[in-house]
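Researcher: Go.
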Amino acid sequence: MRKTMMMAFAIGATILASSAPATAGDQQGVVLRVPKPYAAVEAAIQSLGGQVTYRFQNVDAIAATVPRERVHEALALVKADRAYKDPVVAAPEAAPRVGPNRGRAVVGVEAQEAQSLDGTALRDFFASQPKDYNFNNTLIGADVLHAGGNTGSGVIVAVIDTGTTNAPVVPSIAGDVIGGENFVPGDPVTSATSRRNGAHGTWVGTVISSNVIFGFSNASTLVRSLKLHAPSAIVTACPNPPAVAVCGVAMVGVAPDAKLYALKVFASTGGGSPESRVIAAMDRALTLKRNYNNGVPSVPVSGDGSEENPFVYDSLNIQVVNMSLGGPTFFAGGDLEDQLTLLMVQAGISLAASAGNEGFAAMTGGSPGSGQGSLTVGAANTSIHERVLRDLQFGVGIGALYRPTTGIQTAYFSSRGPTADGRFDPDLTANGFATFAQGTCEGSAACLAGTGLAPISLVSGTSFSGPTVAGAAALLRKASPGALAAQIRAALINSANPAVLGDGSGPIDQGKGFLNVPSAQTVLSALVANNRGTQIPLSQPNTDVAKNIQPLGFLPITFTGDVFTTSVNNLKPGQVAQFFVPSGVDTDALTVKVTGITPELPAAQQNQLFGDDIFIQAIDAPTSFPEHRIDPVNGGAFINADATFNIPDPQTGLVRVALQGDWTNAGRISANLRIERTRSSPGLQTAPSFAVKQDDFIPVDVEVPAGTAQVVFETAFAETWGRYPTSDIDMILIDPDGNLNFAGATAASPERAVVANPTPGVWTVLVNGFTIQQVQDWVTVRVTADGVRLFAE
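Model: Structure:
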């Protein structure tokens, strides 16, 4: 073993170099922290058949793709201070998973006409101060600022998303999109402002700055439902049938006079985006702002301002950025995306980031919401919005049966904190359920042809609570042009109202509370007058996640004889009980049992569609990219009788189990919880423990005997998901014929690969320190053949 380790790099490099060239599908994206200038690094990457995809200006790093077989050579050649895999950020959605038999959280509606509200028409509209159901402008107090003449005029908001449409078929924001840039290579839609892009970024844009009244038939389901649940949302005369009439429903954004700049990072054809592309868009927004701060004129440098050829700038006074997206992080608050959130604030940009839609179990938020400079926004769910949505889905009158309670809740899908470095997260909450928004021409030939309006939808997700706060930041920027971005952030957070939500939500659910724009303006004025709130408070974490979250009031459960039991009493509809379950290298399985489910109300008074029940989720140990372990397709299970859930091979760290009083319940509910832990000794190691540093590449050889039915390879390392920050150590297998197996080159802790009917002979386990957050990490390798321990050659 000692000799093998001394020769580690030479052997490993030879093996990989002799492998067949990778196909296009075998490319690995990497982000490398290297100093400028980048020329030598680029040459090294190209020599290995790789390609540099992004060169970042505001941080010292590049992104590249490299043939997977040669990634580890690349790491050694460029000698990066840190290297990260370039994960795919999932395309943002408007219909978070909800479990079986509950219906989707998005629905389309069809308008007959549209009337833009510009200039005098917009001022007259605000003079009437309608209760605006669509974006909760009354609930958040934005209508107070609107009535006082503050509509965010002249404030520029950059939207990093699927693109934001600037076309007459989207009258809600037509003319408000001043330009845009496309970061998606090879996309058939090259314009960031085209009607042919995905709808999500345009939905987001309408939340921020729409200004239109849409007309709907008085016989439509939408109008009938609004008359029942929110009659003041109808802003024109609207007689009942049999009279025939077109009734006006306003779609007014939080900052209806703000201007939008589209930064497109998701392809028009669908699918996710490499995280490096998202970082590139953040980097670009920061460059535009810094150039403006440095006196570079804000004039178009390309484009003609049309929908398919938007203006592009090299300097722009971007004051707010919205990011309704999120991805994984090993280093909450410290990775590249999260560092850019702080740089944006320093440059004068307020960044609103969605918390995520991974549900109510703890520690489900990703980056950039985990950034300490972000305004991270959770989603609320109001009964009016849900009832209208369900009426549209199932028929008028069903909404009140579906959602029998009237209180505002944290939405069931809204991701929760805390962060691994010990912050509550999210920062605040705004409505993100059944938001009235207009998208692009997806699915509409008439829209593409210009003969019909772009579809209108009621959409759900933190994707839409985020831009609500982005619009609020634009209003505050207009009200206090001299305020620092840090002060705007502090004002919005510290003025949030924790009493609005009535479901028992705590700081990891709703943050400081529900958005309150007038209160935020008052707080901001005081901060500016007293020169306070100029710095963002930064966390001071240690290396133990459990210790980081303990001051927040969260303790891991304590097993007695490998069993934990408790009672969960009187959960309100939407209220969540969280349990942090320690899982070590000796944990083979967890068994979760829920018994004695007892609704407060008799059956006749419970939810008449579903009854009152418990919604349960279990999330594996990773702290930023949730892995659902109970019904992954639906993100959890609804139960009203005794139920048992088995979780084999949990990762090491803190597994989270969460019980919610189903948000559709009519009353409180109680249950008993039992968590059993199955453990076994890991046994002897295949090789002695050894230290791995950044970019190390260490082989361990084992002889797999002939006739083996199954061989299990496992690499465990000390910096598990229970540690902060978390390392990423890969295990790559080479069989006796030289074939590579990357099943253990993931983000799991420990890495595990199971091979059926393995080729007999010498297998090599290559242990690579892909991302070592500390100086080094300690690794153990265990290999068993049909349950019998194998030892290193």
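Model: The two ends are 7 Å apart (CA to CA).
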